[in-house]
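It is worth pausing here to work through a concrete case rather than discussing structure prediction in the abstract. The textbook approach is simple: state the sequence, then state the predicted structure, then interpret. We follow exactly that order.
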Amino acid sequence: MIDHAFLGIDFGTSGARAMVIDDAGEVLAQGRYAFNGEQSGPLWRTALFELISQIPFTLRNALRAISVNGTSATVLLCDATGEPLSAPLLYNDARARTEAEALAQMAPRDHVAATPTSGLAKLMWLSSQPGFDAAACCMHQADWLGFLLHGKLGVSDYHNALKSGGDPETLDYPAWIKTLPFAALLPRIVEPGSVIGTLSSRTAHHFSLPRDCVVRAGTTDSIAAFLAAGSGKPGEAVSSLGSTLVLKLLSERRVDSARHGIYSHRFGKLWLTGGASNSGGAVLRSFFNDAELQNLSLRIDPQQPSGLDYYPLLQPGERFPVSDPVYPPRLAPRPVDDARFLHGLLEGIARIEAQGYRLLQELGATPLVSVRSAGGGARNPAFSAIRARLLGVPLQIACHEEAAYGSALLARDGSLMLGRANE
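Step two, the predicted structure:
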């Protein structure tokens, strides 16, 4: 008999996932919903409620808290009842270039909100579109999904609010943002894990959930993945080795550098700093399938340098550790031996990872002490050995790779910093 269960829900780029855990962090149930290329408010609502429906009835009765994460800087306009007035503008939507330039004239130098993909630039773009007068709130993806559960309009966490200009230290917006004519539509900011409210009576009744089950403020998908990995001390980092390479280092000092593609999220009294490179597994798969990658990796001696100086990119343009929209790929010369070519590619990605962590430390972040690895690349022994050689710190496998697990921990603990996930 389960007395206490906690639900974490992850909305990513390709679909949504749910995970239920108990007090000890054991996974009790999981659910999935694929987007199949579509993204819309109605689809998100369907996915959210379908995931809850997938939870066994006996576990639903034991749910004590729910937390939802979403993709950073994905926003939509809502009316006073919370109904969407616009199609969502996704995390990578860069149509607000003109608006970002206007914001850059008002914002402090290199401000994260003065970029075309920021939530604030998107809201500024939306403010010039037909029907904007009916808008009551601009909500991030995680905010709106939480609203569907608790019914309180216009509440966000300081992670999702960062790219909309929210100050994670004051839990407010700076004066230069408050002067903007649409500033009243920005959500109120709370700490991730804060109790926003209990489930609405309608939601609780429809899904046979406890009326006293609370909904906690969520976070972004990448930070939920960091939580799931199990790192929690200064100097510990997580490398996500998926289609792209994402680095996050827990630091006692905040590090921001727009020219390097670096910004920091508040993590309690610490800072989660890092960046995302365009290099990664997508480059490898443009040359080799999974079977080829596995077989060729067996022929690599990871302790010996390949002798190749690659910067693996699919096309020109890099975000971190170099922020340059026309940065060129370096993939030549290509050896006749495919194993040596793969060796060079893996080594090139590992050098980018090492360069990224080195740059974070040069800019003042806490020195790197260990790296947990998540994603498909973490399961390649040759790649892991090359990375260990270049990083010079211990490598560990992430405790859990699913961001939904990180949100479940947030639902359980009510804080990003309690450290119970690492016990």
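Step three, interpretation. Residues 418-423 have pLDDT under 50 and may be disordered. DSSP finds 13 helices and 16 strands in the chain.
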